[in-house]
Amino acid sequence: MTSTTTPPLTHRGIPVGRDLRILALGSFANRFGAGAVLTTSALYFTRQVGFSATEVALAMSVSAVVGIVVQVPAGHLGDTRGPRQVLTGFMVGAAVFSAPPVLATTPWMLALLLGVLAFFERGAGAVNQGVVAQLATGGRGVLFKAYLRAVTNTALGLGSVFGGAALIIDERWAYVTVFVINAIFTAFAAWNSTRLPELAPHARAAGEPRLGVIRDWPYVVITIITGLFSLHFFVMELGLALYVSAHTTAPTAMVAVLLIINTAAVALFQVRLSRRADSVVAGARALVRGAWWIAAGFAIVALADRGDVWLAIAALVAGSLVHVVGEMIGSGGQWGLQMGLAPHERQGQYQGFAGLGFSVLAVVAPPVVTYLCVDLGETGWFILAAFMVVIALVSVPAARWALDSRARYGVTTHSG
Questions:
Q1: Are 338 and 221 in contact (CB under 8 A)?
Q2: What span, in angstroms and rounded, lies between the C-alpha atoms of 223 and 68?
Q3: Do 282 and 355 belong together in one domain?
Q4: Contacts by 9-18, CB closer than 8 A, 24 or more apart
Q5: CATH (domain of 342)
Q6: How far apart are CA 323 and CA 328, in angstroms?
Q7: Of 387, 231, 255, which Cα lies nearest the Cα of 320?
Q8: Is residue 5 in some structural domain?
Q9: Which helix (H) or strand (E) holds 10?
């Protein structure tokens, strides 16, 4: 656990350390532009360009696969060639290719451009996670990840407001402006990364495998567990919207209301609810606490199909509030496990691999969530509640096993 002498992370909401302020500013700029594009891109390509929804979805799937493939090699490259230089390189590439997708005239051109963009964006994301782990020292790693999540949620929300203006205007020039603004903010984030300190590269030792994380079975297991735990994000982002529409009498506008509630709660309380997850064992325990809250939230949401419109609204709001408490506690637990078990000199590679759990889940989760939340209805929500608790309980012995493996082989891990 973090000692009482741990230096404060922020003062009046701003990181105390210069390096952490730079990271936070870059994350805000990057996610502001992303929020605007996420709000508008699907409608732009279907309504303005004329692609079908299936064609757009296929192009996005291609980019998702590219993102999965690039994460671990990119993190490894950052570890061995210098995290700051590699991060800047990926960010420059992301800035250059942020706007070109707007020029796509065929679905295959869109898939190609989104794939190239994903290569640079996901590569930068993997390297950036390693940089965060190396700079947020002194027991502040999990807390700073929590702070960054609050920052990025706020940025996404503000960016979505900007994107919403383009939707209201509903003219091609407005959508193109959103893509250009995203490129400008990404370019600023690329420049901002050059202000980070030099971080020494760590060359591979003689006989060390190129991507050792793949052979680190305890870490692979932990990545699978934290990846499966992330299923609750897809439940609340996709499953909840479909459930509201198909099974309840609540107005569909409630989906936007619930999203606002979630975003505001994370921005206000994520750091506070991540304070008890600053080690591997504490991270596993936080995952269990978070799972119970999430399960309770799912159970409450499941009741939204049992009454009139006001009961449905009450159940949805209450369930979402309970869920977001578990989301914030559980997120801290995930970070504690992922950062605490990674060798300090291989944070880029390991955090890139940790991100695979979520990336792979993004490919398979939508049909699973749709079946459970919509086809099974209330029963599916209770199945999901039980699943969350079980997967979190498994993390406790898995975390102990992973720690024992580090002690046995003398691996130096991140301090937290």
A1: no
A2: 14
A3: yes
A4: 9/140, 9/143, 9/144, 9/147, 9/271, 10/147, 10/271, 15/144, 15/147, 17/135
A5: 1.20.1250.20
A6: 9
A7: 255
A8: no
A9: strand 10-11
256 Cβ neighbours under 8 A, 6+ residues apart: none
Instruction: Give, in degrees to the nearest 5, the angle at Cα 23 between 162 and 289.
Output: 85
Name the burial class of residue 79, with classes exposed (0-12), middle (13-18) and buried (19+) by CB atoms within 10 angstroms of its CB. buried
343 bridge partner residues: 413
pLDDT score recorded for residue 203? 66
Query: Residue 6 gets which letter from DSSP?
Result: P
Examine the pLDDT at 409 and tell me if it is beyond 60.
Answer: no
Percent of the chain past pLDDT 70, that is, above it, reads 93
Neighbouring residues of 315: CB distance < 8 A, sequence distance ≥ 6: 300, 301, 303, 304, 306, 307
Residue in this structure with the two tokens 């952490």, named with its chain if needed: 20
CA terminus-to-terminus distance, the chain: 9
- pTM, 2 dp: 0.81
Q: Which residues make Cβ contacts (< 8 Å) with residue 53, sequence separation at least 6?
A: 42, 46
Same domain, 221 and 334: yes
Could you tell me the CA-to-CA distances from 404 to 177, 213, 218, 255, 407 in Å, in that order? 53, 16, 10, 44, 5
